[in-house]
Structure formats: structure tokens, C-alpha cells
Amino acid sequence: MSGKAQGDRFPIAMERFLQTMSALDPVTEQGVKDAILELCEIMRVAKAVTCFYDNEMFEQLNEGRSVVGYDNGKPCRVVATQRMVTSIMTVIVCDVYMAYDEPEWSEEERARAHLVMKMIQTFVSRSRLQKVVDRLTYRDDEDYPNTRSYLRYMERMGRAGKLRGMAAVHFNLKHFSLVNRQIGRGAGDIVMHSFFNGLALLIGEAEEDGILCRQGGDNFVAIVRQEKLDAVLNYLKGTAIAYDALHTEERVQICATVGVYRIPQDFQYNNPSDVMDKVMPTIQAARSSTVTDVVFYDEKMIISKEKVMRVQSLFPRALETGEFQVFYQPKVSVTTGRLAGAEALCRWFHDGEMICPDDFIPVLEQGMEICRLDFYMLDHVCRDIRRWLDEGKKVVRISVNLSRKHMMDYNLLQRIIEIVDRNNVPHGLIEIELTETTTDVEFLDLKRVVSGLQRAGICTSIDDFGIGYSSLTLLKEIPWNVLKVDRSFLPEDSEAPDSRRNVMFKYVVAMAREMGLECISEGVETAAQVEMLKANSCDLAQGYFFDRPMPAKDFEQLLQQMQMRNQESL
Ligand code: C2E
Ligand code: CA
Ligand code: CA
For 173-216, what is each residue's pLDDT tens digit? Predict the structure, then answer.
């Protein structure tokens, strides 16, 4: 094709090239490539290569990336080279080749070729810049897609009605700081990246497949297809990740607490918080649950929003006016049937109605109000004990529940001792029940508090043992006095003696004994369970089979009876 003949097509092709190049977001690279291909044909070019170097040093070392290319496969020779150094010192080099049998360019053609090369360089330079800006905007310091990229995705897919039938999955990696401590921060980063990449691969690359982003720290958000949800949850429940490329058998198990919202088919999108508002309570519930790591959204969570507000607004006055009462649930020796202690459990009397802890404790635990309630309970238990002692009653040890929320309180120990001493109660009559902890930071606090209580002669028990994060480290490294086996560990009557639960129960009790811990079974409801405790030498029990939690008045009578029986047996 001669210079004159190409003259007809060139302006049109050039125009097309300029249009695709200057198209606003997103510039489709394919569109630009097609336009360049057309120009190459018109210009009788056999091959064109554009190379991008981060700086001149990389150019000298020939370490660059080929960013735009064309090659019709014919044997060819270089006919033009153009080099450009941008304002940020990146280097873009364009090489153009012509087939050996192709006649030379005319002057006009050469000028045009240089114009096209210049345009390509400008395009490459701009799109590199665009990529850097994108990286800074949509990725975090460690190169994970960030919340902004999640929001952009939600906006795009939501507006297109494409979020319907997807699932929003928020998750938090469990004890990741412990992982960091075990294998080092560098290896920890590698593990997090490869855990992330594995999940991203599972979710899929296409926009319709979903997205995975890091919100910060060890918190992540994802949108996934519902067909893939099971596989994704399986992955999050626990996946072994290698942390050393050379020794791939060195692995750590990574798992997460997960909140899930299945976006319904009739979902109406307004803004990203439509989905966020639904999934936030699920991840909170999952993080505070000791029973499960995965919580699915259900309508009740929204109703609970009203409940949260109601409880939070009524609480301060209820505490002042004494609407909270201490109920006592006896702990009994299964061999002698004697009263061995009691647990103080809170009841809220409001408008003539009794509200049980499960309806308000989780709400109070969302903030710090629970701490005020716990101190109130401890104070009232101490007052009761003092009164009983003053009345000459023989008193048993009373346990009081303390929420994990207290662990942040550096003065917790002094506060507890201050309340007990203010009421002039012997330390040996108080026991503090604490639940297992989730993070290693909490673990250290827990250890400090329990050891301090121990030194002060106040007993501690590990509550709800068997659900959640039961770990031997927790038992071994913290000087507990009592292990309270959760009722979910207690086998049901119909269970075979060699059922998994039976065997586990047996070992937990034996292990507690081995470690010199008192062991008590919670939630004992049947005579058969009592027999089972006896058979396994677990002497203490608490549960409806013996007594339900009762008002202080009723419990006093039990103390009285115990005293009478003791006197009779003397
Ligand atoms: P928890 O510490 O595990 O307390 C035992 C719960 O099991 C009590 O429920 C008790 O009534 C119930 N229970 C006892 N025996 C049986 C049985 O044989 N069968 C069944 N099904 N249940 C039995 P409650 O009083 O509703 O308390 C629920 C939870 O609320 C407690 O669980 C504890 O975690 C929390 N809680 C109660 N009072 C306080 C408090 O003053 N402070 C704090 N932080 N938490 C409290
Ligand atoms: Ca308890
Ligand atoms: Ca318990």
C-alpha cells in the first residue's frame, strides 16, 4: 500500500485510536490494541514492541515489561526506534519493524509513524500512572484490595442488580497475632497472603464471581456466589498454610470467625451499607460466640437492634433502682448430696416481669455496661454473705461471673479485692468464674488476673469449658482452681458409653483431676447423668436435677437446712 493509498484510511484509524485512548474510565486495553493493530497494517508494519522500564537502570539491564505488542510473524528489520523518559523518570521505548521485502516508508509515512509511536508512549505512560493511582486508592500498604475497592465493587454490582443471589462474607482470622509470634512476622505475612490468595482463587477471578478485600488487620470482606459458599466456609473453617516455600511441610492452621449474609433475590440496592448493616451483626455475633465460628444473618438480629437500644436505655436506671437481683444456683456433691457451693446468676425484674440473662447480658457485653453489672452482682453477693455470717449461718463458697470485657481493665484485681474487703468477706468464700479467652493478648491479661486472685486467696474457675477455645495451654499455664465442664459436654442419657462425648467427658474429668483442679459438671438434669458423674469420679454437679437458680431467701433456707443437718450428724 502506498503512502497515498494509506492516506484514505490513516486519519480514520488514527481517530479511532485517539478515541479509544482517551475514553474515560475504564480504558479498555483491548480497544487500544485493536486500534494499534489497524494502524500497524496501514503503516505496513510487521512487528511493534513497546517496552516499559521503571527507570534507566532497569533499561540498561534490559529488565522491562513489554506492554503493547504486535507481530504478524514475517521476518523483519527494525525501521524506527523512539525512546521517551517521563516526568517520573520511567522509560518507554517503541521499536517498529518492517518485513524485509517491504519497501521503505516515504517521508510522510515516517512522520506519521513517529506520531503514532508518540501517542502509544503517551498512552502507556498515562495508563501506568493510572495503575499507580489505582493501586494507591484501591490497595492497602501490603497490596491487598482495600475497603474502597470493596465499596466500588458493591456500587457497580449493586446498581446493575448483580448482587442478588450472592453472599456477603465478613471474617476475622482467629489468633493471628499468636501465629505471628510463633513463626515470626515475616512468615506471618506470607501466610496471610497465601491464605488470601487461596481464597481469592476459590472465589474466582471474574467480576461476576465476587471480590475479596482486606478491611485492615486480620479483618476481611468478600462477596461470593452462593453456589461457592459451602466451599468458602469450609476453607475459612480451617486451612493449613505453608509458611516456608522451601519446606512446605511447615504449615500453620488458619481459621476464621465468619458472619454471612445471603443477599436475597428481591434485594433492592441503595448503597453499600444496605449489605454492610446486615453482615456487621453477624460477625460481631460470631466473634463473641463460644459455640460457633460461623453466624448467618437472620431477621431476629435486626429486631435485636431495637432490643439493644431498649436494654441500653433502661439499664442505668435499673441498676440504680435495684431492678437486678442475685439468684443462687446450688452446687452439690453427687456422692453425699450435700450443698457444696453456689453460683450467683443475675435476674432483672422490670415492670413485674423477670428477664433472664440471655436477653440482656449479650447486649450489655456489646459495650462496657456489663462491667458495672458484674461489680454490682459481686457487691450484692458479698452483702448477702456478710449478712449470713452475721446471722451465724454456715456459708458456702459463692461464685460470681465476670465477663471477658473486664480483661481490658488493668485495675480489675484491685477492684475485686476492694469490693470483697469493703464488705468484710473472707476471700475464701468468693470464687470468680471466667470464660475461655480468644486472643493471646487476652490470654496474658487472663493469666495476670487469675494469678493475682490466686495470691489474694480468691478462687477462680474456668467457665463453660469444652466449648469454644478450650486449649490445654489455657489449663496448664493459668493457675485455675475449678474447671466447670459445659453442659454440652455432658452426654445424654440415651448415649452409648463409648460415644465420642462420653469418652471426651471422661478424659476431661480425668485431666482436671490430674492437674489438681476441682471439676464440676454444669446442667445436670437427670439421674442417669448423676450416675455417669459418679462413675467418672466427678464429684460436683450443678443443674436442674438438684435445683434451679433461686432467690436469696430460698437459698438461705438451704443454708439453714444444711446447718441443721450438720448439727444432727454431730
Ligand atoms: P452460665 O454462667 O453458664 O450459667 C449457667 C446457666 O445455665 C444459667 O443460666 C443456669 O440457669 C443454667 N442452668 C443451670 N442448670 C441447668 C440445667 O440443668 N439445664 C439447663 N438447660 N440450664 C441450666 P442463666 O441464669 O440464664 O444465665 C445464662 C448465662 O448468663 C450464664 O451462663 C452467664 O454466662 C450469664 N450470666 C448470668 N449472670 C451473670 C452475671 O452476673 N454476670 C455475667 N457476666 N454473666 C452472667
Ligand atoms: Ca457461670
Ligand atoms: Ca457455665
Answer: 988 888 888 888 888 999 999 999 999 999 999 999 999 999 88
- Structural domain range at position 201: 147-303
Question: In this structure, are 406 and 488 located in the same domain?
Answer: yes
Decide: 356 in ligand 1 pocket, CB within 6 A: yes
Pocket test for ligand 1, best of 311, 376, 401 (most atoms within 8 A of CB): 401
Q: Is the pLDDT of residue 6 over 60?
A: no
450 lines ligand 1 (CB under 6 A): no
51 has a pLDDT exceeding 80:
yes
- Residue 542 alpha carbon, nearest atom of ligand 1: 15
* Ligand 1 pocket member 525 (CB < 6 A): yes
For residue 310, is it within any domain? no
Name the strand (E) or helix (H) holding 228. none
Between the CA of 391 and the centroid of ligand 2 the distance, in Å, is 27
Does residue 547's CB lie within 6 angstroms of at least one atom of ligand 1? no
Is ligand 1 within 6 A of the CB of residue 549? yes
From first CA to last CA, the distance across the chain in angstroms is 122
The answer to whether 3 touches 106, Cβ cutoff 8 Å, is yes
Contact 285, 366 (CB under 8 A): no
CA of residue 342 to ligand 3 center, whole Å: 12
C-alpha 55/C-alpha 86 separation (Å) is 9
Do 408 and 264 share a domain, yes or no?
Answer: no
Q: Given strand 256-262, what is the order of strands in its sheet?
A: 210-216, 219-225, 166-173, 256-262, 294-296
Omega cis (within 30) before 145 = no
CATH number of residue 268's parent domain: 3.30.70.270
Asked whether the predicted pLDDT for residue 7 surpasses 60, the reply is no
pLDDT digits (tens, 9 = 90+) for 524-568: 999 999 999 999 999 999 999 999 999 999 999 999 988 888 777
pLDDT tens digits, residue range 450-499? 999 999 999 999 998 876 545 666 777 889 999 999 887 788 877 787 77
Domain boundary residue among 106, 138, 170?
138
